[in-house]
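Duplicate of #3305? Posting structure anyway:
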């Protein structure tokens, strides 16, 4: 039996006096929990990215799309094992510069794709963060809901085009409540399932002064299963406790909770042909998905290496 774990967490990595202390505490929790793959949102400064990557000792590589001051979309993905191909898809609809979503537009929100392979299981992980709905107005036709609809439909279309023999996991901060019409339409269009379907626990914790009605389940892990192997998938909320951060100051790591997911499956028995020829089965997939292992470059430059076929995308290596 093979088992891997994945964590998604909106780290609330904004410019605030306590953010460095919260992120240092987060790094400690990541090293303790040790999920195989970590998808982080709201990493709003390269300083915060470097802090996380340098402290997360269990994760030799990190993926992000670089911008001038921050990872594009605020997205950062960590993994213990080498990555395969990566890419970033920008959401075509970003909202208006004159709306409340100006900060979302400046972040250039999108989808961060990473390809992985574990014990013959091909996996595609999508780390994403949709625009905020500041008025919590999810009625059809409302300005924010219209933008969210466009982003969700784009995401669903991209998922539909991914290989059917791969486990597809889309996770992050969707800024829509569970069982809203936006949520239901996305599941129908994408063919995915919610690993916490029916769970009413909020994943957003309103900050002081924010109305309690904003406490909703808006972070998700969606999956699309391959036909084989049979997978056991389980999710639960995590990173929900107040922790000591500095001196006597105690606070939560973020205004969001994390979702920890485990995926388990039975190991495939080797075929007779593989045993007789003493050659392993080739599971590397198409050349563009083959993992790139470049440990010799770990100490070069600023610690990031180019993925040759995707010249603007960078893989961070400690």
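Output from current build:
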């Amino acid at each position: 039996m093979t088992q891997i774990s994945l964590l998604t967490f909106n780290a609330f990595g904004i410019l605030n006096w306590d953010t460095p202390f919260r992120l240092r505490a987060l790094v400690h929790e990541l090293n303790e929990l040790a999920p195989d793959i970590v998808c982080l949102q709201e990493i709003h400064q390269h300083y915060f990215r470097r802090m996380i990557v340098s402290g997360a000792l269990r994760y030799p590589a990190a993926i992000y799309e670089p911008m001038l001051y921050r990872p594009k979309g605020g997205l950062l993905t960590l993994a213990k094992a080498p990555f395969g191909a990566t890419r970033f898809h920008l959401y075509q609809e970003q909202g208006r510069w004159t709306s409340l979503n100006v900060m979302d537009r400046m972040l250039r929100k999108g989808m961060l794709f990473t390809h992985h392979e574990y014990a013959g299981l091909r996996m595609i992980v999508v780390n994403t963060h949709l625009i905020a709905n500041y008025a919590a107005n999810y009625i059809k036709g409302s300005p924010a809901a219209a933008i969210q609809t466009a982003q969700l439909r784009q995401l669903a279309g991209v998922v539909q085009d991914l290989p059917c023999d791969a486990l597809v996991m889309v996770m992050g901060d969707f800024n829509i409540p569970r069982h809203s019409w936006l949520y239901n339409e996305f599941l129908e269009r994408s063919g995915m399932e919610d690993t916490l379907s029916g769970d009413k626990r909020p994943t957003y914790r309103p900050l002081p002064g924010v109305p309690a009605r904003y406490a909703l389940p808006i972070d998700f892990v969606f999956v699309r299963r391959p036909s084989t192997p049979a997978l056991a998938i389980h999710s639960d909320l995590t990173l929900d406790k107040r922790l000591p951060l500095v001196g006597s100051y105690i606070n939560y790591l973020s205004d969001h909770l994390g979702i920890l997911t485990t995926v388990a499956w039975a190991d495939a028995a080797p075929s007779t042909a593989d045993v007789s020829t003493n050659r392993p089965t080739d599971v590397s997939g198409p050349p563009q998905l083959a993992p790139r292992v470049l440990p010799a470059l770990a100490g070069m430059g600023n610690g990031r290496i180019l993925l040759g076929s995707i010249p603007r995308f960078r893989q961070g290596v400690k």
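Confirmed duplicate; merging threads. Residues 143-160 form the longest helix (18 residues). Residues 126 and 170 are 5 Å apart (CA to CA).
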